[in-house]
Specification:
Number of helices: 15
Strand content: 15-25%
Radius of gyration: 26 Å
Distance between the termini: 90 Å
Shape: globular
Largest sheet: 6 strands, mixed
Length: 351
């Protein structure tokens, strides 16, 4: 009892001193300030490196409407479009932004290929970004019209003349795929580049100007649905590690080559980068605790019922990849042996 009384007296004395000097009030204010979440009362800006209305912009605006509620402090998340230079301008801006967690970039993974092959304008290092995640994995397939006569890989191999595939520009997946299939797989291909998007490629294929093209299955099945359903369009090849569930009998490009080098030249531009196409990144040097928080809140957003309902209504597929896996994928691209890198540069850029 005596020991307990002594402790109580000491406690009462400490409280009295604290009240008398005002230290308790100051300490409580300081403690409350320390406990305030960093993102409270802040605005997070997603810099989308394309014009409004496209796929990147549509995903980002849907994500922005729900992401803030999964971040401690519930910050407001806004969109800023910064198009130009094949998304280089937006990515460069993010690379030079303050590393405080308040600027997030949304740009294409093909910029990593651009850095690898020395594309002018990419003077930032893709390996130094802090990766948050991607909302969906893209899978590349080749869609050709029935009218072209190329309804199977066997008919493509046996074609007496190069098969015309549409493209939208160098180091874009449409062109990358066509060039890899021609130079690595050995398929007869004539790349016709310069189309303003995949919609003009579809129209050109339907008019007989092209046989078809190769780009994301997730886009093709939504935008060329009528042709697929009518049997006027066929998926004849897929650039995936394993067949997609919806395309169990469509052959893989990997099965058409034998050498390990050929497989690597297919994997880097046609497997690795498409799976992480729609990158979300923080500037280099962002504090690790904020990176971790934004990664986890991003993945929580991907499971948010309200976000999923909005995505479903907008026909946006959701199949996310976390920041850690994105980081591994980016770094794997930079592990290509110099001779293979030189060959890929020659194939994709022609020099």
């Amino acid at each position: 009892m005596r020991q307990s009384t002594t402790r109580e007296q000491a406690l009462f004395a400490l409280v009295a001193l604290c009240i008398a000097t005002g230290l308790c009030w100051a300490a409580s204010i300081g403690f409350a300030a320390e406990q305030k979440p960093f993102f409270q009362d802040k605005i997070i800006r997603i810099v989308v490196a394309t014009v409004p209305g496209g796929g990147f912009d549509t995903y980002s605006r849907a994500i922005a409407r729900h992401w803030g509620k999964h971040i401690p402090g519930n910050p407001r998340v806004i969109i800023e479009n910064m198009p130009g230079g094949g998304m280089i301008i937006g990515a460069k801006h993010v690379s030079q932004s303050a590393p405080d967690g308040l600027t997030i970039g949304n740009f294409i993974s093909d910029l990593a290929l651009g850095q690898l092959v020395g594309l002018p304008g990419i003077d930032f290092d893709m390996r130094k970004f802090e990766w948050v995640g991607v909302p969906v994995k893209d899978s590349i397939v080749c869609a050709l019209t029935k009218a072209s006569g190329i309804t199977s890989i066997e008919k493509w191999k046996a074609s007496p003349s190069p098969v015309k595939l549409g493209g939208t520009g160098r180091l874009v997946i449409t062109d990358n795929t066509a060039l890899i299939l021609k130079e690595v797989v050995g398929l007869p291909v004539h790349l016709v580049s310069g189309y303003k998007g995949t919609a003009p490629i579809r129209l050109a294929a339907e008019s007989g100007e092209l046989a078809g093209g190769c780009w994301q299955w997730e886009s093709i099945k939504a935008t060329w649905r009528s042709g697929l359903q009518a049997g006027e369009v066929n998926i004849v090849l897929q650039m995936t590690v394993a067949p997609l569930p919806e395309l169990p009998n469509v052959p893989l490009a990997l099965t058409l080559v034998r050498s390990a080098d050929a497989r690597k030249l297919i994997t880097a531009p046609l497997h690795t980068t498409p799976a992480i196409t729609r990158l979300y990144a923080l500037p280099p040097g962002t504090p690790k605790e904020r990176v971790t928080l934004l990664r986890s809140s991003f993945m929580e957003t991907m499971k948010d019922p309200e976000f999923l309902a909005e995505a479903n209504k907008s026909k946006l597929e959701v199949d996310p990849t976390g920041g850690e896996e994105v980081e591994k994928a980016i770094h794997s691209l930079f592990q290509l042996e110099p001779p293979l890198l030189a060959k890929m540069k020659k194939i994709l850029l022609g020099n």
